[in-house]
Automatic annotation (TrEMBL):
InterPro entries: Polyketide_cyclase/dehydratase (IPR019587), START-like_dom_sf (IPR023393). This is Polyketide cyclase. It comes from the Bacteria. It holds the Pfam family Polyketide_cyc2. SUPFAM superfamilies: Bet v1-like. It comes from Streptomyces griseoviridis.
Length: 139
């Protein structure tokens, strides 16, 4: 059997907030512009789909249904029509949590582009951490 394998990078950021709080915030597509700049700085619901204006152009984002497992997987359909699956997990870690994004190298992606995407995802997850940790105890 010949299986094509993609290189993956697991990018994790520890967040000093409970996993259910991180999941509740990160799973709401309306919050994406506040922290997921790599995906887009605006998002709106159009004809039942979440549409973001991204650095790549207009993309649609489809999340798995909300769940109790911390799974935030989502598919991003690019302007070209290609769909990229993004596995994401929020994992409880004592009173805090860790969010882990699995970045998969796409066919034909250069080393420089893979490093750029890694840095972009890391920045997004760090922004999410900073936003949640600085919300105060009232959240």
């Amino acid at each position: 059997m010949n299986l094509t394998r993609k290189e993956s990078r697991h990018i994790g950021v520890r967040i000093d907030r409970a996993a259910d709080e991180v999941y509740a915030y990160a799973s709401d597509p309306l919050h994406l512009p506040a922290w997921a700049h790599g995906l887009g700085r605006s998002v709106e619901r159009i004809d039942g789909q979440w549409v973001a204006e991204s650095p790549m152009g207009r993309v649609t984002v489809a999340f798995v249904p909300r769940n109790d497992l911390g799974v935030l997987d989502h598919d991003v359909t690019l302007p070209s029509g290609e769909t990229v699956h993004n596995p994401v997990r929020v994992i409880a870690d004592g009173p805090g949590s860790e969010i882990v994004f699995t970045l998969r190298r796409q066919p034909g992606m250069s080393d420089a582009d893979f490093r750029r995407d890694t840095a972009m995802v890391t920045a997004d997850l760090t922004r999410l951490r900073d936003l949640l940790e600085n919300r105060g105890e009232e959240s």
